[in-house]
Amino acid sequence: MEVLWSLVWCLYVVVFVILLLSATVHHYLGLRKLYISVLKKLFNFGQEKVEKKRPPRWQSNADELDVSMDDISRPIFTPNHPKALGMDEDAKEDFHLDHILNYVAAGMAAITDDSVTKYFEPEELPQWNLLSRTNKAYEFISFRLTLCWMLGFLIRYLILFPLRLIILLLGFLNLVVCMSAIGLLPDGNFKRWLNSKLMVFCFDFIAGSLSLVATFHDVENAPKKGGIAVANHTSPIDALVLATNHCYDMVGQRHSGPLGVLSSALCRASSHIFFERSEVKERALVMKKLQMHAENPYVPPILIFPEGVCVNNTSVMQFKKGAFEIDTVIYPIAIRFDARFGDAFWWQDKFHHYLLHMMTSWAIVCNVWYLPPMRRKQNESAIAFAARVKAKIAHQGGMIDLSWDGFLKACPVKEEWKKQQQEEFARHLNVNGEEAEEDGACDEILNEFKKERKEMIPDFKKEMEEMKLDFQNEMEDMKPNFENEIEEMKPSFKKEIEEMSPDYKKETGGILPNYKKEKEA
To answer: I need a surface site. Which of 163, 164, 363, 479 has the fewest CB within 10 A?
Structure first.
């Protein structure tokens, strides 16, 4: 028994040393890439076993063809190009009540399988990765695969997870200590140089806890000092991935707890911007800080994720226009994760659930493309510029370019988008010539009414002037009679006042003493 425990401890020590080396000097030893190559061979073995148990290829192709044809014929709503679906543009027949059935079908299809919420769900993999995080029970297809899956489960949860957690804690402590030490140095070129080197090292150390392997393409287009770097958003580790290759100043939500300690340490070393999104005043100050930061050629570029939400890395949602309103250079960056080794998409409700999901994955593998810098064109709006940058990122990463706002997953649809669909539907109601003739007759009646109204205006003004003169004359005639009536009423009014004064004095004489006594009491 002691020999068994000794072997277990030796295994833990060996794996920990390998993980520690892969977190610190993996660039020289190539340990992470070697680990990924072993995983690929293991996945290929599992895929061969799965393919043997699948139905013939022609059946799956037929199914895929049916699905694709169904998707083509299915009505699709988009916010930028509203289309009244189910009614042809060149329709000549009269409108009937059954024409709305196509709209009802489109609404039902949107509820069951819309073009927004499916991009906030984990991606279904075409190749099994020996994880039970799929919709199909691949692990029970064959006995060998079941053994491989069980062995992989024990390795991931009993060996990799606890050791990776230790590496994560060491990396977190290393980052806080290094950034706090840099914060003690005076501002200058040496501090900025040391920050750029240590920040990349510290984040690469933390990335070792996830066995992260990131391949960076077109490094000559990497962001320079100053300016703003924008990237698509999939997970909270997007900034970690980019920081393993380049130093950035980050913009984000202010946190408390461990993340608050980390953000405060980062702010000591460089000019990061953390703010409270719920405060309107702070959001206004952030825009000024971004403008000043982008104009400073001595500070690292600001890193922003304009989507504002995490998407499952198959599409790119609408970019918010805030960062694109600043007149500066924009450095687009495309990030595409390989979900075969581990899905980095954050779909869990709790962050510690997401952290457990990441720590128990095989690895995190991704490709990063640095795109050529872009500038806002003359007379180009911030919204159009944001859409142009988003299209470039989606094309380079092989993702779908969507114009939907990512916050639709939690917020109701904007009223203006509903109005666009309603207007398009109403426009299609005018489909035949008879309705056009009716509209023409209505226009003629309206024009005749306007013409008659113009002709009546002079006569109306003349009548109003005559009525005004008559009214003034009547008032002048009534004035003497009114003055005589007032003079006649004055004597009688004075007499009534004199008769009422004795009674009034008696009443007030009795009230005032009582009031004074009550006040003194």
So the answer is: 479
Query: Among 242, 215, 213, which residue's Cα sits nearest to residue 230?
Result: 242
Return d(Cα 160, Cα 181) in angstroms, integer.
Answer: 31
209 CB contacts (<8 Å, ≥6 apart)? 19, 23, 164, 165, 167, 168, 171, 359
What are residue 316's phi and psi, to 5 degrees?
-125, 120
Q: How far is CA 180 from the centre of its chain?
A: 32
Q: Which pair of structure tokens corresponds to residue 454?
A: 């113009």
Instruction: Dump pLDDT digits (tens) for 458-481.
Output: 777 788 888 888 888 887 777 777
- For the record, the structure tokens of 494 come out as 């004075």
Give whole-number Cα distances, 219 to 112, 196, 288, 369, 465, in Å.
42, 16, 30, 8, 83
Cβ-contact 374, 405 below 8 angstroms? no
Q: Are 254 and 266 in contact (CB under 8 A)?
A: no
Assess contact for 194 and 202: CB atoms under 8 A: no
Cα dihedral 20, 21, 27, 31, rounded to 10, equals: -100
Is the distance from CB of 46 to CB of 130 less than 8 angstroms? yes
* Count of other CB atoms within 10 angstroms of residue 65: 10
Q: Are 323 and 246 in contact (CB under 8 A)?
A: no
Q: Which tokens in the block code for residue 191?
A: 């501090």
- Residue 313's φ and ψ, nearest 5 degrees, are 70, 15
Residue 346: how many CB atoms within 10 A of its CB? 22
Q: Which amino acid is at 228?
A: I
Radius of gyration, CA atoms only, the chain: 38
